[in-house]
Amino acid sequence: MLLKPPLAPMETRSVDEIPTGDGWQYEPKWDGFRCIAFRDGEQIYLQSKNGQPLARYFPDVAGALTRLPSKQFVLDGELVVPVNGALSFDELQLRLHPAASRVAKLANAHPATYIVFDLLAESGQVYLQRMLRERRQLLEKFARSNLGSAKNLRLSPATTDRDIANEWFKRAGGDLDGIIAKRLDAAYASGERTAAVKVKQIRTADCVVGGFRYATGKRVIGSLLLGLYAEDGLLHHVGFISGFKASERRAITNKFEASKKTPGFTGNAPGGPSRWSTERTGEWEPVAPKVVVEVAYDHFTGGRFRHGTKFLRWRPDKDPRQCTMEQVEHREGKAIALL
Fold first, then answer.
1. At a CB cut-off of 8 Å and minimum separation 6, what does 9 contact?
2. Least confident range of 123-137, 144-158, 294-308
């Protein structure tokens, strides 16, 4: 095998709009774990985005790769876990478990899928310096010969039609993180952001502040804890915002220290079981649920905002009870049908 792990995957840079003009290939940006798959005979190695081994957590995908007719290749793609016709990031994260027996049980209940979007090497030939236009043709040929009957392996769709890319983009927020646009005349830029861009659909939601955390080692607010009301009438913790200007922190701290009141959240609260938990999860101060903030976010799944949320503005005109899950739940579109 001429290519060996670790191999830095090609990166993307963020832009505000899907690029136009000739020379672009558009692909869905799937909501999963980036993975470069190496096969050399019976040896399979799955590498994460940061160079760590993943095969022990995804034996179902490793097994599927072993059964392919081609015996030597390197693929770039995304690991996902379909559940009830949609992709579950929560189930994906559960795979990162130290017990092999637990991983096997999870894999049996919800098998993972490897969505392939690039071919980097095959049968001793390295394609890193080939243009994407040619690599895509080689990948589609590889898919026809290998992926037809493979249950856990799928070819990611691609198009040069921006109208189709726009339709995919409308589904962003559930199975899709957004759209990737790659230069058709570019080589595979390992570890670089020069040949591809990503576009995410930023959304907004009005949330109730149900508590706050102090900054580490300081008596000023580090983050505000956000809540939304569900159909059960309870206020559930869904995420946080931080990054306030130093000049604003004292006033914000005074404001919320004056409104401390238990329980803060009447439903799910910080400190409960969560894949996002940290050692400081339980260290928070409850406040009366009276203050509403508008935040920007790019993804909501499993009852929480994923990645960072950004403070936009205070909403004194908004009744806290108007801040419901309906704002975000309808965003969870299903795009797995593209596969």
1. 34, 36, 49, 76, 190, 191
2. 294-308
Evaluate the omega torsion of the peptide bond into residue 263 and state whether it is cis, within 30 degrees of 0.
Answer: yes
DSSP codes of every residue in 290-328: T-EEEEEES-EETTEE-S--EEEEE-TTS-GGG-BTHHH
Domains and CATH numbers, the chain: 29-160 (3.30.470.30), 203-329 (2.40.50.140)
Instruction: Please give the positions annotated as active site.
Output: 29
pLDDT tens for 191-235 read 999 999 999 877 889 999 999 999 988 899 999 999 999 999 999
**How far is C-alpha 90 from the chain's CA centre?**
10
Number of helices (H), then strands (E), in the chain? 7, 20
Asked whether 275 and 93 are in contact (CB, 8 A), the reply is yes
Return phi, psi of residue 124, to 5°.
85, -5
3-state secondary structure of 197: strand
